[in-house]
User: Fold these one by one.
Assistant:
Number 1:
Amino acid sequence: MDQKRRNFLQGSLLASGAVLAGAVEAAPEPPKPPKEPKPPKDPKGPKPPKAETYDVVVVGAGFAGMCAALEAAEQGAKTVLLEKMGRPDGTTVYSSGWIAAVGSRFQKNHPEDSKEAFFQDMMKLSGYRSDPELVRVYADEAGDGIDWLADHGTPFFLWENLPAPELSRCVISPGEGITGGSKLLRCLMAALEKAGVPIVYNTKAVHLLKSPNWDVEGVHCLTPEGPKDYRARGGVILTTGGFGANEAMVGQYIGPWAAKLIVRGSPWITGENILMAQEVQARLVNMDQFYAGPITPTGHANPSPLMHAGYGIQVGTNGKRFVPETWLQVPKAKAIAQRTPDNRSFMLIGEDANANDNILSATIERFARLGYHVFKGETIEEVAKAAGVPADALVETVRVFNEAVKAGKAKELDPPYEYETPHALETGPYYMIPAAGGMASTMGGPKINKFAQVENFERRPIPGLYAAGAAAGGLWYQDDIGGNQLGGGMVFGRVAARHAARRAKAEAARRPPEPPKPPKPPKEPKEPNGPKHGA
Ligand SMILES: Cc1cc2nc3c(=O)[nH]c(=O)nc-3n(C[C@H](O)[C@H](O)[C@H](O)COP(=O)(O)OP(=O)(O)OC[C@H]3O[C@@H](n4cnc5c(N)ncnc54)[C@H](O)[C@@H]3O)c2cc1C
């Protein structure tokens, strides 16, 4: 309790005691008036936080943030990029670096594709729930974005003729020992340095600065040197990534089952975009949508290729099948979290799987390089014991499976086994590869319009607030063309930057011209260069 309040309470207790006492005794001396509070030592009060002013303030140094910052600088805006960690450390670092595009210079040999076909495919994959206006901007701008990155020194190659809907739409920057996503960031960091854009690390944006009518005017940050305001004349662009590593938000927006998912990307992607955008009543959309994939429970290895090799079965820790093995990686990863009590399963596979391009040995070798060892046994009992799964239950599952395969009735199993040419599990040694459901990235967030401005509940843009990449909502729903997420960051990061830079210019034009500076007094004439005294 503060001193003033304590004095007041003590004073009133004394006073009421005096009244009671006065009924039987002589009137006491009137209580002394409370002492004047001492004036604070610093009459100006606590110092305001340090502040710097820019045209465009970008929050979050992932792929979207770097694209936004570079574009803003190229539009002539004084730009700063803020990053809460000591280095770029978002989900981009973990990503393969595929970017989906149409019409880039790398796709010249594919006139069969078009912006319209790309738009239609993206809408279809989203179940027609993505905002068509945003998808149209994506289809129109992604090709130009790839050329722009290439002009800034990002090497790309095109992965051609993939199965639909990827087709010849995946442009990749080869990682060469690092992830493709890290490669993209390194190229952008070099370009930002050249353009003179500072990346300020260990600077975490915690809330928005706003005018009395709620225009966004900057961000308040925590830095190792204390609090600091970054003011923005044109706008603040939120590129803080999604909220997949914020267990409470995942539970709240997606469901408690999803909070069991293992984070496949960065552990620092914790939804500050949501917390800040809500300060100005931004409309959040598609918050229950996310991209999933399987992952080993420890070691961050991806067992997906083996899970789709056309061999083996997937079982829970109880030794029973629970999901059709043919399901693609996203629904399968979700099913592991939804249908098993502990988000744990195993792929049981025999040595004969190597008939498919040595996929088994290649996976085991890849896992060993990552320090991750799979369970092995000469028989089903042995491998079950090694993995800690009840041996009798697994033996029974395999017996039923083998019988169905041999009788040509695998599709009638529950759940159905839908490969056209199923293989009975009869060739040891057998392997059990742990697979859990993993959270790759969330798709929902503050709804943006075609200029990447964040909208409020009335669908009006909130002046000065933009979002891009996984920090923005409206572009994705349900599924996407592989490479759509990085692509979304690139496209809308640049769109936001252009709009915010224009806004900064308009703001500068409105400002009254600064009074001319008084002329500097003439400098003292320098001593002419000559031999030094005493030389
Ligand atoms: C294993 C894996 C592979 C993937 N592969 C692909 C792929 O090939 N193609 C594709 O399109 N997508 C892929 N994705 C998805 C894609 O990686 C993400 O959607 C994308 O990287 C998000 O980029 P971003 O710039 O929006 O955010 P991030 O890359 O997550 O960057 C956000 C940055 O903001 C910082 N930050 C957060 N909060 C604050 C704050 N308050 N103040 C300051 N800074 C803050 C973070 O530290 C981080 O550096 C993959 C995902 C995973 C997990």
Number 2:
Amino acid sequence: MQIKKTAVVWFTNNLRIEDNKPLYEACAKYENVIGVYCFNKSDFNKTQFGFKKIEKFRAKFLLETVKDLSKNLLKLNISLFTFFSLPEKIIPQFCCQHNADVLFFQNEFTQEELNTIKAITQKLPKKTAVNSYYDQFLFRPESIPFQINDIPEIFTNFRKEIEKNAKVYNTLSITSKADSNFIKVDTPIPTLKDLGFQDFELNTNTAFPFQGGETNAYKRLNHYFFISRKLSFYKKTRNGLLGIDYSSKFSPWLANGSLSVRTIYWQVKKYEQEHGKNQSTYWMIFELIWRDYFKFLSLKHQNNLFKLTGIKQLNYNWKRDAHLIRSWIDGKTSNQFVNANMIELKLTGWMSNRGRQNVASFFAKDLLLDWRIGAAYFESLLIDFDVHSNYGNWQYVSGVGNDPRNRKFNVQLQSQRYDATGKYRSTWLQHNLF
Ligand SMILES: Cc1cc2nc3c(=O)[nH]c(=O)nc-3n(C[C@H](O)[C@H](O)[C@H](O)COP(=O)(O)OP(=O)(O)OC[C@H]3O[C@@H](n4cnc5c(N)ncnc54)[C@H](O)[C@@H]3O)c2cc1C
């Protein structure tokens, strides 16, 4: 039964209307629903290693995403108020101003986000209840066959158990609210300049020429699955380096939640019914389980995700040589394959998975540099930065995470194997003018 009360939905990394549990629950249970998003000012400051948390590529993508969310919410008669401030300041004030009975949001579990959530809940008006959900997983934590502390340290053991004994929930669709739910929005979405960046054009060679937002996420999914049917070849092409279609490119939309991981899962199932199942269609789900796995490891190991000794608590003799770090960032190391990848990242905010593994291995295992600095640089530049996947993968490659074999990439051999003709290197090395 619906009660005549007001819910505020605070959007964070769940910038979509489809399959959004907090939004769905708010709409199902409350008559008045209001959306709010706060561009967090502290994300645009420099952190301990000297990089901004968010550089221009992710900032642009985020702005496009929030604009699209606002349009999509409007179709449901829901207003989205946006601010450029600190969420812990804005959200309690907003709830107070709108006399909110409840605040809905997506649960986060890394320290800074937990601090923000704590600060918000402490300042909320007495009458405002809190409802939050883990909504970023393929397999919700309450549905997996492990206690969080017993999550296996080896991916294969996790995957096999999950594949047998966990279920993926159906996606949720929201019905429109009444016209009267919409209230005039008097908080304009900030511009790129407001966030501290100049406007810029995308590099013509970028492998990620897409815009942010749920609408574009669906276009991309439709293209990759049903129009081009590239999904049927994904396993063969996923180690590619050039062009838009060697892999799905879903990660930036997944990272800010403008695409639900469960939507992808069910679209793979639909595709398999229509066009046949093969190793490639399975491999897409396999990779999405990797994504979940890093989130579960982060839930289990908490702040060890960010510590130099990693989740394995291993001590190595890491260096912090500023000259070596700069040469890696600028694509001026002794290895041209590493250099090409680093230039691609600097000019586009994108790098392939193969590239990421190589440059991270080179940073940590050849140059022996403090892996957290490399991870912080990735955090700043990547359009698809996701805290769990980034820090988890960096640990994995650096030998302090969950790689049972602690492998080192031979970057020379890797470039011969994956860039045999040198086309990838020449595409990006021509820009090496810094
Ligand atoms: C050092 C390092 C840092 C990384 N940092 C990030 C990051 O910040 N954000 C991020 O989303 N991914 C990160 N990855 C994982 C991976 O490189 C990207 O997810 C992938 O390249 C995104 O391209 P895609 O969407 O076309 O992937 P596809 O190959 O099409 O895969 C589909 C989806 O599966 C998931 N996935 C694939 N590979 C991985 C993986 N190794 N770990 C976790 N999930 C995976 C992603 O959600 C991806 O969108 C990192 C990998 C390394 C080695």
